[in-house]
Amino acid sequence: MAALNFVAAEDGLEEDPKLLGLARILKVPRGMAFWYVLRWQRLILRRGNHMLGSLPKNFRAEDVAGFLEFRGNPRRLIDAMKKQGLVLTTLDPSEAARWRDIGNKVTQQMVAEKLISAEMLGAVHKAMGAH
């Protein structure tokens, strides 16, 4: 049986104008654009810097499209996401705060589920100079 991964989406994401615009640009149903945005957020959390909302510089459009399970021209996906403000080239303060909030929520969930101890989290923050 396939594993089921639960990914929490922020409330109202399915009606976000950026997401609806992405669906129009890519000519896909809203549900598919929703999937791409969820996978994008998960990619940032798993492989990128969730505090900045960025990916390592060596990530190519093909890598992102593969992770998002996009079937089409990878450059078209990235360009559409950039146009909608979903892929950031310059991080504005509100977007930085949004990604910090997402990172904090995931971290709190991990502590609550005992996937990481509060002591270990404190040691990580201390080592990073984050707190």
Strand element count: 0
Helix-strand topology string: HHHHHH
The biggest beta sheet reads: none
Calculate Rg over CA atoms.
Answer: 16 Å
Strand content: under 5%
Count of the separate structural domains: 2
Mean of the pLDDT scores?
A: 80
Relative helix content:
55-70%
Distance between the termini: 42 Å
Characterize the overall form.
elongated
- Poorly predicted sequence stretches spanning 5 or more consecutive residues: 1-6
Main structural class: mainly alpha
Counted by DSSP, the helix tally is 6
Explain what the structure shows.
It is a single chain. With 131 residues, the chain is mainly alpha-helical. The protein has 2 domains: 78 residues, no CATH class; 40 residues, no CATH class. It has 6 helices and no strands. α1 crosses α2 and α3 crosses α4. The longest helix is centred in the C-terminal third of the chain and has 20 residues. The protein starts with 16 loop residues before the first helix and ends with a helix.
Structure keywords:
131 residues; mainly alpha; 0% strand
Quick gist of this model?
With 131 residues, the chain is mainly alpha-helical.
SSE map:
Elements: H1 17-26, H2 30-47, H3 61-68, H4 74-83, H5 93-112, H6 118-128
